[in-house]
Design brief:
mainly alpha; three-stranded antiparallel sheet; 2 helices
Length: 99
């Protein structure tokens, strides 16, 4: 994932409601101030193509709770890679060793 895409996702997250955590409750993702997202049912002919609404809500809540921490981890890994590359350069070793 590019730095530009991570920045876009951070901007999206910064505009969202600040919560301790979102949680799933069957077919609903729940947050503060009655901020609930309901996962709708689908017509019978599409049911073989979609997950149960509760599973989709579990996924949505996990994504909402973990997006920023995952972006932080990616940024930290990028910094670590840059530091290791610099260390290799300073030691006179081939920078390609980390690619």
């Amino acid at each position: 994932m590019t730095k530009q895409r991570r920045d876009q996702l951070r901007e999206i997250a910064s505009k969202s409601t600040k919560v301790v955590a979102w949680y799933d409750d069957g077919g609903t993702v729940r947050g503060p101030f009655n901020r609930w997202f309901h996962c709708t049912d689908v017509p019978e002919q599409y049911r073989s193509h979609v997950a149960w609404a509760g599973d989709d809500c579990t996924f949505a809540a996990a994504a909402m709770n973990n997006l920023v921490p995952l972006l932080d981890e990616l940024d930290a890994m990028d910094k670590e890679i840059a530091d290791l590359r610099m260390e290799l350069l300073l030691m006179g070793r081939d920078e390609d060793a980390l690619k």
